[in-house]
Amino acid sequence: MRLWLIPTSYTAASVAAATVVPRLEQAWAPGLIHGMSAASATAFLSATASGMLAMTAIVFSIAFVMVQFSAVAYSPRLVLWFASRPGLYHALGVFMATFAYAMAAMMWTDRSGSGSAPLISTLLVIALLIASMLAFVLLVQSLSGLQITEVLCLIGDRGRDVLAAPSSVYRAPSRLKDRCAGPPVADLGPPVRTLLHEGSPRSITELDVRTLVERAEAADLVFVLACGVGDTLVEESPILHVHARGGQATDFDERAVRAAVRLGRERTFDQDPKWALRLLVDIAIKALSPAINDPTTAVQALDQIDDLLRRMARLDLESVWVGGADGAPRLFIPLPSWNDMLALSFDEIRQFGATSVQVMRRLRAALVGLQDVATAPERRDAVDGYLDHLDQNIRKSVLDTQDRITARQIDLQGLGLTRSPKPPGPGTARPKARPSAREGPSGA
C-alpha cells in the first residue's frame, strides 16, 4: 500500500462519516442533544479544528527532524527508511480526520436556529480528539528509534529476516528443495538470446524465482542471470542470458520474464542481506571519520556484522542452480561468495579504523569467532588471511609499540574485557609467552 493512501483513507472516511452521520442523527434522533449551548459547542469544535492544524504542523516538523537527523548522524540512504514509517502517516491521517469531522460538526451546530448541537457528532469529535492525542504520544515515543543502538538492531534484524525467509536463496541446500546441481555456465555455450535493460539506471530489488523457473521450463530453456540482487542496471546492461537445451530457441513470454526481475530506484532489504551489511559498514566508517571520531558506534556496528556473518558461515553461498518440476536446472542465480561477504564487512572498517585500538580489538574478536563457526576449510583459510591482513595494518599504523600490542588483543567490547593473555608490563621478570595463532603476534 502506498503511504500517501493512509492519510487519504482516513480523510475520506471522515468526510463520508461527516456527510452521513449528522443527517441520520437529525432524521432518526432529532431530540438526542446534550446540554452544551450552541456557542460553547461551536467554540469547542472550532478549537479542535484549529488545534489539529497546529498538530499537523508539529508532525511535519518531527518528520523533518527525523530525516535530517538520520541523514547527518547515520547515512543518507536511511533517510527514506525513517521518513516512510507507516506510524507517521497514520498519525497524520488521524489528525486530518479529526479536523474534517470537527468542521462538519460545526456546520450542524445551531442548524436552522435550533440552538443545539448534535450529541453523536460531538462525541465522535471527542473520540477523535482522544485518538489524536494518543497518536501524537506514540509518535513522539517512536523517536527513541533514532537511538544508534535501535537503528543498528533494526538494520541487523532486516538482514536476519532475509537470511531466514522461506523463499530466500541464502539457505542451506537441505532447506531449499528446488536447488539442484547444474553444469558450469561456461559449458552451456553461447546464449541464443540476451535480455538487455532499457531506460534509466535501476537497482535489482527482488527476483521472482518461481516465475523465472516456470517460464524457462514452459519453453524448455535455461535462464542464466547476468546480474544479482543489488546490482544497478544501466542502459543495455545484460539482465539474463537465454540458453536452449535442445540447441534451438523457442518463444517465451519476455514481458513476464522482465517483470520477474523487479527493479527500483534504490536497493531494498527484500532479498538482499548485503544491503544490511552495506548500511552497517556505512554507519561504522562514518563514525570513524575525523569529524565524528566515535569508535564505539563502529564497535556496535561490528556486533551486528559479526552476527550476520556467523549466520552466513553456515549457509551455502556462491552461485546456485534452481531446478524445475522435472529436476533439470532451469535458472542460474549469481550470489556473493564468502570472500565477497568478508570484503564487504571488514575491508573499509579496517582501513578507516586502523588507528583505533578499540576497533582493531573488536575486529580481531569477530574474525576469531568466525574461525570457530566456519565449517569449510576454504572459509577458515579466508578468515586466516584477513587476520594476517589485520596484523599488517596494525604493524604499518601510526600506533606505538605498546598500542600495537594492545590492538592485537581479542575484546568483544573493543576496550573492556580482554580475552587473550595480557603482555607483561615493563620491569617484570616474567618472560613473554608466545601467543597462539588466534591471538596474533605479541610484538610490533
From TrEMBL:
InterPro entries: DUF2254_membrane (IPR018723). Signal peptide: none annotated. Pfam families: DUF2254 (PF10011). The keyword tRNA processing does not apply. Keywords: Membrane, Transmembrane, Transmembrane helix. The keyword Transmembrane helix applies. Residues 413-444 are annotated as: Disordered. The chain crosses the membrane at residues 52-75, 87-108, 120-140. This is DUF2254 domain-containing protein. It comes from Alsobacter soli. The lineage of its organism: Bacteria, Pseudomonadati, Pseudomonadota, Alphaproteobacteria, Hyphomicrobiales.
